[in-house]
């Protein structure tokens, strides 16, 4: 079965994400979590917080291809210091990033309606999917907004 990404599907996913507390939502193209390649649309709204994490044991690469909007990928060292900020924005030149296994990273949205096509090695098993950074607040903790704000400020200074 053909799987098509249309302007309408991006808009619908973004509208749904904007209404959620997490301010993000994915739409899976893989039919089974055991699929060797997980493929999804991922809608990110400004204010969504993704705890820094890495994919190792099992090692998995993660790819983001920006379809609409503006997404910042933050790379961290082992101590939690941001070492790089990569702007994915089709209007400004960077269209995609592949993050190798074992690299601490997070993403945040700069624009309403941001959607990326995400690919990650499967299979997906929630308990093994991510190693979350012990030096960053967990999603839902009171410090998330301040942490995200500090990252955004550091990015804007650069």
Give a structural overview.
By secondary structure, this protein is α+β, with helices and mostly antiparallel strands. The protein has one domain: Jelly Rolls. The longest helix has 14 residues. The protein starts with 6 loop residues before the first helix and ends with a helix.
Keywords:
158 residues; alpha+beta; Jelly Rolls; 5-stranded antiparallel beta sheet; 3-stranded antiparallel beta sheet; 35% strand
In short:
The chain has helices spanning 7-19, 126-129, 144-157, and strands at 24-28, 37-44, 53-54, 62-68, 71-76, 82-88, 96-99, 104-109, 114-121, 131-132. It has 158 residues and is an alpha+beta fold.
Summed up, the domain count is 1
CATH architecture: Sandwich
Might you state the CATH topology name? Jelly Rolls
| Tally of separate helices | 3
Beta-strand content estimate: 25-35%
Spans of at least 5 consecutive residues with low confidence:
none
Widest sheet: strand ordering:
1-2-9-4-7
The CATH fourth-level homologous superfamily: Jelly Rolls
| Helical content band | 10-25%
Structural class: alpha+beta
- C-alpha Rg (nearest Å): 15 Å
What is the oligomer described by this structure? single chain
Main sheet characteristics:
5 strands, antiparallel
Chain-averaged pLDDT: 93
**Assigned CATH class:** Mainly Beta
In whole angstroms, the N-to-C terminal distance is 44 Å
The SSE order reads HEEEEEEEEEHEH
């Amino acid at each position: 079965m053909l799987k098509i990404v249309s302007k309408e599907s991006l808009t619908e996913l973004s509208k749904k994400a904007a209404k959620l507390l997490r301010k993000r939502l994915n739409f899976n193209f893989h039919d089974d979590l055991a699929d060797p390649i997980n493929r999804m649309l991922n809608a990110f709204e400004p204010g969504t917080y993704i705890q820094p994490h890495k994919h190792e044991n099992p090692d998995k690469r993660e790819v983001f291809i920006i379809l609409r909007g503006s997404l910042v990928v933050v790379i961290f060292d082992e101590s939690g210091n941001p070492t790089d900020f990569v702007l994915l924005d089709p209007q400004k030149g960077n269209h995609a990033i592949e993050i190798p296994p074992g690299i601490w990273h997070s993403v945040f949205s700069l624009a309403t309606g941001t959607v990326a096509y995400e690919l990650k090695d499967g299979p997906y098993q929630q308990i093994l999917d991510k190693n979350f950074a012990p030096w960053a607040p967990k999603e839902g903790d009171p410090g998330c907004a301040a942490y995200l704000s500090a990252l955004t400020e550091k990015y804007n200074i650069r």
